[in-house]
Design a protein that fits this description.
mainly alpha
Length: 118
Amino acid sequence: MLKLNFPDILYTLPAILIALTFHEFSHGFAAYILGDNTAKEQGRLSLNPIKHIDPIGFFALLFFRFGWAKPVPYNPLYFKNRKLGTFIVAFAGPFSNLLLAFLSISLILIIRPQNMII
């Protein structure tokens, strides 16, 4: 187990919540765009973190740096091309994390003090 102190947990908590929420929302949104309403009907097409957080996976991520969220349900039978649709839905989550990382780095570079070393 990693040794984390309370300030470390406070600093990482918002990032974890944002990343997990946006990741799972992206899966559901991709499925919705491709014609599957399953996530929307089950209330999972939401940016509310409570809808996506799995308690055990969340605490594992916070303390062990490996965890998970509740998977967003989808039904590939609604996709015109099932293989491509499944690939797009699966890729949407990791792509959203890459997008968040790029935006975060860009923001840090824009607002950082000049003497801050990255």
